[in-house]
């Protein structure tokens, strides 16, 4: 998959081999050598991705403990993860692949019940884990629900909702274009360039430290307001996966709901799905949550979210949580031609699209997935009612071959649990 802003594939760390990946099980941050300056490095990320709140500012997301926790039941037909699957004509073993990909948690649900659940490197069902850009999909489905409720208009200009962005690249883009990432935005993700926007965005939440004398934007909103278009290309022509868009979507959500995005996430998702634990969201100095990549939660709670999507927006008790029209629109996917025009329809992504902050397979089952770099997945097959969650601490931000292997494994999983 193409790299996202939060990827921050730190040049020095990208050359480290998997052998440098020290297990974090039973280790302290001192023993791991983890600091706020090396959060994303592959030799420490098996610790930092499980304990990110030790290194950055966060916003707490309550699970509404006064409400009922909705238990995830175990299926009477469990799936053995020690299974082989075909990948490009070769037989691979799922457990071997999960170890190679440095998985920390793996859960499969069928019809809302756990058919497989396994943890690695000392993680458990209680462990919070950084979800990276999977966060985008939580943001996207909330925005899609607000559209379905008539609170947001996909055809309206972003500048009409957020005056602070009128003079930016977003001002004359529509809500729908930003939500589907087809707007024109001059946003460099060149990891060889220390002045690229990718690093400026990360500095607002502390994922990379500010150098001495730094005078760039200090908050997410300041950063977004400075961004401009990339030449004269019209908005809406082609898809480009750029994380800044998601934080604009969150700003729109906050504006129309009249409260911080973190509170909307809590009220509309976390307190409605019977989550086992609260969650937390990375935030900037202005206490604005990073809606594009800052969510930390348990694997089981990620599975509850995926199951809600598979069940048409209903929680495990059958209560409607997300507007059904938002789910239906999301399942349809986006425009594959715009996806291809942006240079994304290749390899495992051939024929895919992007809609409402989800990646869409465009297959016969209308399957789609939330993806985060370093190996985070929430895969939803609404036709077969299967959800697959993986949390990981991969050694690199994006490994296309790993993503392709995961898709082949998921195809076999769906075949076996029918």
Automatic annotation (TrEMBL):
Uppermost EC category: hydrolase
EC number: 3.5.1.46
Record-linked Pfam families: Beta-lactamase
Entry keyword RNA-binding: no
Matches recorded under InterPro entries: Beta-lactam-related, Beta-lactam/transpept-like, Diverse_Enzym_Activities
PANTHER family the record matches: BETA-LACTAMASE-RELATED, BETA-LACTAMASE-RELATED DOMAIN-CONTAINING PROTEIN
Record protein name field: 6-aminohexanoate-dimer hydrolase
Biological source species: Vibrio maritimus
High-level lineage: Bacteria, Pseudomonadati, Pseudomonadota, Gammaproteobacteria, Vibrionales
